[in-house]
C-alpha cells in the first residue's frame, strides 16, 4: 500500500498499523465470515469511518482457467 501510493518510508509503521487494524476489522473464516468485534460485543459494528487507502489488488487465476503463457494473476485497480 505504501509503495503504490508513493508514500515515504517514514510512514511504514503507520501503514503496518493500518493493515493490522483492517485485518482485525475484517470477517473471519472460523467465525463463518462474521467480524470478531460483532461476535464479542453482540452488536453490529459500523465500518463507515474507513476511507479508501488506495492500492492495487491481485487475484490469482486458477491453472485450469489460463494457458501456459498467460499471467497467473489479474490486477484489480481500485477507483477513488
Give a concise summary:
The chain is an alpha+beta fold and 80 residues long.
Question: Key terms for this structure?
Answer:
single chain, 80 residues, alpha+beta, two-stranded antiparallel sheet, two-stranded antiparallel ribbon, 4 strands, flat
Report on the structure:
This protein is of the alpha+beta class and 80 residues long. The chain has one domain. The protein is 25% helix and 18% strand. The chain contains 2 helices and 4 strands; from the N terminus they run αββαββ. A two-stranded antiparallel ribbon has the order 1-2. The longest helix is centred in the N-terminal third of the chain and has 14 residues. The mean pLDDT is 79.
Low-confidence region ranges: none
Mean pLDDT: 79
Helix content class: 25-40%
Strand arrangement across the biggest beta sheet:
1-2
Number of DSSP strand runs: 4
Amino acid at each position: 500500500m505504501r509503495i503504490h501510493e508513493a508514500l515515504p518510508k517514514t510512514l511504514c509503521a503507520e501503514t503496518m498499523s493500518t493493515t493490522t487494524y483492517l485485518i482485525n476489522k475484517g470477517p473471519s473464516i472460523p467465525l463463518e465470515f462474521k467480524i470478531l468485534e460483532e461476535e464479542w460485543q453482540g452488536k453490529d459494528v459500523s465500518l463507515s469511518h474507513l476511507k479508501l487507502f488506495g492500492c492495487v489488488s491481485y487475484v490469482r487465476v486458477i491453472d485450469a482457467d489460463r494457458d501456459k503463457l498467460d499471467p497467473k494473476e489479474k490486477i484489480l485497480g481500485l477507483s477513488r
